[in-house]
Amino acid sequence: MTHVTGTRALAGLFSAALLITGAQASEPVDADYQAFLSALGDAPWINANADHPSANEAYRPIPPLASFPADTAKRDLGFALFHDASLSRDGTVGCNTCHMGMMGGIDGLSIARGIDGELGQRNTPTIFNAAFNFRQFWDGRAFNLDAQSIEPIVNPVEMGHDLSQVLASLQADPSYQAMFAEAYPDGVTAANLGNALSQHTKDMTRTDSPFNAYLNDERTLSEQALRGKDRFNALGCVSCHNGINLGGNSYQPVASNFNTSLQYALQGEEGLYARSGREQDRLVFKVPQLHNVGMTAPYYHDGSVPTLQDAIRRMGAQEVGRTLSDEDVNDISAFLASLSSEFFSGSMHSMMSDHELEDAVRNQMPDRMGGGMMEGENHQQHMQQMMQGGMHQEHMQHMQQMMRATPDSAADSDASTHQHAH
Ligand code: HEC
Ligand code: HEC
Predict the structure, then answer these.
(1) Which of 86, 92, 141, 148 to mutate to test the pocket of ligand 1 (most atoms within 8 A of CB)?
(2) Does the structure show a pLDDT above 60 at 15?
(3) Which of 128, 185, 180, 124 is nearest to 152 (CA)?
(4) Which of 70, 179, 214, 301 has the smallest number of Cβ neighbours within 10 A?
(5) Once rounded to an integer, what is the mean pLDDT over residues 384-392?
(6) Is 136 in the pocket of ligand 1 (CB under 6 A)?
(7) Is the CB of residue 99 below 6 angstroms from any atom belonging to ligand 1?
(8) Span between the terminal Cα atoms of the chain, in Å
(9) Are 105 and 97 a contacting pair, CB within 8 Å?
(10) Are the CB atoms for 387 and 100 separated by under 8 Å?
């Protein structure tokens, strides 16, 4: 007993000494970063279903959205804000410009485009089921959705606005003023703006995927998808992509070889290092969630991977040190397709062949260099071209039907004509 305690005390002293030397060697950690280190998303969400029978296995299902009590005043305000382009400097870009409901919560571009057609830094991740991520953004630099929601508004290449001006114009708008007052006792503030937007993102939770139903013992999957799941586990993909979101719960380095390190260095990409300033965080990213991943091509933080098959093959090489067989790639791809919400079963991406998707992504490649054919064009035009170029007529018609049929997407298509969705 005493021996064990003694050893522990020694070990404690030793790590304290290490901590002190570490603290001296690197930049002092600011209070903001301390808070960041100890915060982990929104507890009711990231701990959801913790008592499910499968909670101690690799995966657990997402509980129904109804089990997260929503304040309807906040949620409705969040919906209005999310679809309101006047939150951007020139009134052209809303959250839904990049996170389109009917596209699986993304824009289909390799790198996002904000106001003035400006090229952003990274690929747009989906907002569907993002509420279950322990941190937000590819590099996990925002500790929850409230903190995340303000960033795009002030990001110079996304919505490019000034926060105090945004708050002033919300305050000056009688309708917003009333909605804020109903939802929050202290009315229009930056914290309430972030909180309301995060309520909308939380509302973008989808639980109707075949895999979620399988985890709830409500149905089985195809033989190929089950084979893919076994390979996903056996190859070790599950060591990073696990839990309620098959990812979204840890940080991992992405540049395990010279080529990827070089590629990212050339892009000026630093990963979490840009937030933490700690050398060990260079090119470290949050493991992305995999729900609806079949809908969200192109892939990776830089949108450099056109198809799901490519993403799986590259993961094999990059993260588990294997050259995957075509059979494994196809089986894992069938497994990952079972993570798509049935809500998207008629959506654009599920109707485009890999070949069409690849063309759509390749066509954007000159973007990276800052010149190229997309320069100066506005985002909506670009989307239309992409849809027309990559899709057949009947796809277009189907898309239009879908846009009318689903409430969220209907609002998306309205957004350019509506300033305020209320
Ligand atoms: C110009 C396109 C664009 C606009 C406008 C935009 N986003 Fe994003 N969104 C992105 C990109 C790109 C990222 C990833 C950025 C990064 O990781 O550095 C992102 C990340 C996110 C994430 C994190 C998801 C995850 O898995 O980490 C959420 C949530 C989100 N955005 C919500 C919003 C909200 C709310 C708004 C409006 C206030 C908004 N976005 C406006 C492109 C956009
Ligand atoms: C060591 C942790 C780790 C392992 C193991 C791992 N991944 Fe990943 N995975 C990541 C990270 C980190 C990313 C983000 C990469 C990036 O953005 O550059 C990612 C991205 C992905 C993506 C693209 C997601 C998107 O939205 O762009 C897919 C698909 C994927 N992984 C599947 C797999 C498969 C299949 C395996 C097994 C062969 C696997 N992963 C093994 C950490 C891991």
Answers:
(1) 148
(2) no
(3) 124
(4) 70
(5) 40
(6) yes
(7) yes
(8) 67
(9) no
(10) no
Q: What is the pLDDT of residues 106-138, one digit of tens each?
A: 999 999 999 999 999 999 999 999 999 999 999
Q: What is the dihedral of CA 411, 291, 308, 221, to 10 degrees?
A: -120
Q: Which of 77, 285, 279, 295 is nearest to 206 (CA)?
A: 295
- Classify the phi-psi angles of 35: left when phi > 0, otherwise alpha if psi is within -120 to 50, otherwise beta: alpha
Distance 68 CA to ligand 1 centre (A): 22
Is 182 catalytic? The answer is no
Burial of 320 (0-12, 13-18, 19+ CB in 10 A): middle
Block residue for tokens 């709830």: 216
Question: Six-digit token pair at 306?
Answer: 């056109």
Cβ–Cβ under 8 Å, residues 93 and 113:
no
Q: Are 162 and 211 in contact (CB under 8 A)?
A: no
What is the average pLDDT across 276-303? 95
Strand-pairing partners, residue 100, are 106
The type of residue at 210 is P
Report all structural domains of the chain as residue ranges with CATH numbers, in order of start.
Answer: 65-206 (1.10.760.10), 210-405 (1.10.760.10)
How far is the CA of 117 from the CAs of 101, 103, 198, in angstroms?
21, 19, 25
pLDDT in tens, 349-373: 555 555 555 555 545 443 333 332 3
Of 344, 357, 346, the closest CA to residue 401 belongs to 346
Which atom of ligand 1 is nearest to 200's Cα? 35
Q: Would you say the CB of residue 151 lies under 6 angstroms from ligand 1?
A: no
Determine the distance separating the centroid of ligand 2 and the alpha carbon of 378, expressed in angstroms. Answer: 32
Return the DSSP state at 349: H
Q: Ligand 2 centroid to 48 CA: how many Å? A: 23
β strands within 237-387, DSSP E? 251-253, 284-286
* pLDDT band (50, 70, 90) for residue 64: very high
Name the burial class of residue 10, with classes exposed (0-12), middle (13-18) and buried (19+) by CB atoms within 10 angstroms of its CB. exposed
**Using CA atoms in the order 219, 287, 95, 117, what is the torsion angle rounded to 10 degrees?**
-130
Residue 391 φ/ψ, nearest 5 degrees? -130, 155
